[in-house]
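Figure 2 data, in text form.
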Amino acid sequence: MIGLGRRPPRRADVAPGADPGAAPAAAAASAATAPVAAVAQRLFWAWALSAGLALFVAWWLQTRGAWRELVTGDPSGISVGIVVLAVVLTAWCGVRAWRLQAEAAPGSAWRRAHAADLAATPDLAGTLLSERSHGPHETAWWFAGAAIKLGLLGTVVGFIVMATQIGRMPSFDIDQIQNLLKQMTAGMAIALYTTLVGLVANLWLGLQLLLLDRMADRVVADILANTRATKEAPDGRPA
């Protein structure tokens, strides 16, 4: 069905010697690709906006002394490691969003590679396309899961510190119990800080990777739809 306000291709618009059915097929493929490219572009700018907001929150926490409290409260360094992991993976998500924006455009590298795979190894073309679009995401999901696992590791380390302090007590006098409670707060701080930072990092990274997965799905679906339209073009049956 031709949309309102869209002029149907006339026979004069088709180059001499070209297949008349190829023009409607190309128009349909271009119309299907344009929304995907626009969505991919919006995804990248949404990531840029969220990254800017995250930088502002980090700066605000710095003015409140939260980062200093985190470093001093967790002498194990696990919380700092989780933060570094979240920053690196967030930057990777931005690069990946930019890549998806490029691959959603007509004539992208993924589209040309899929066409070449169909010509060389048709049975493996779908698998190769899936590996290009989602393979790197699986590694990123592993690192996102590692953030919360590091938080749980910090919890275990904190309880080990507290148990060690209890085991070193020669007796349970009132004065020694007071000192013990002060020493146990260090282990409790490690457990709580690492758990909190691990949960926040996992939620933040999981949201970004989920959006990237959905965008990759749309790009793959668009590539497959355009491939079917190209195959049907010589028969005059555009998708």
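Caption note: Confidence is low (pLDDT under 50) at residues 1-33.
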